[in-house]
Fold:
Amino acid sequence: MPDPINWSLSWPYLLTALVFGYLLGSIPFGYLLTRFAGLGDVRSIGSGNIGATNVLRTGNKPLAALTLLGDLLKGTAAVQLALSYGLDTAVMAGLGAFLGHLFPIWLKFKGGKGVATFIGITLGLYWPSALVFAGSWLVLAFVSRYSSLSALISSVIVVIFTAFLNYWQFAELYAVLTILLWLKHHQNIRRLLKGKESKIGGSKAADKA
Structure:
């Protein structure tokens, strides 16, 4: 089983992995795809977010699907490419990819909320955790009809799942990513508490997911 992160590993390797992951994660697929498709700046509509949910508001479902896939795979690619240099570097690359998606330097550090990239990172590091996230999300979404709430709770479940299995490197990383995920969803959390968050298939088009 993986041990806790070995911080005695040479810092240059960890830093390089972090920067590499950040640059890969900061590729703004939603922004680029909508631009190339002639749909303008996706940040000017809906929530102003560059993620797949906001891209879907353009009415182009294939483009939203491509955005989702791109945001997911950049997390997977970051950890898989760094994995050949050790698990510690892969973990750091995963953290970098997540930070890159949330705070891309190319867009003045205003990025997405990280759900797809979170899943991509879990898929690349330890695929059962990705299945746990997806399974939890599906069950919670079916029961609650809230996509944001399902993602937030699923991220916590993944942390508990990996910690229970003593995969501490994964649990450490997922815990950090979960905190960031919750922080980026602060507006969704406020709407959930007020009962104003839009539900899956709902008609509250004004809500900004």
The chain has one domain: 11-194.
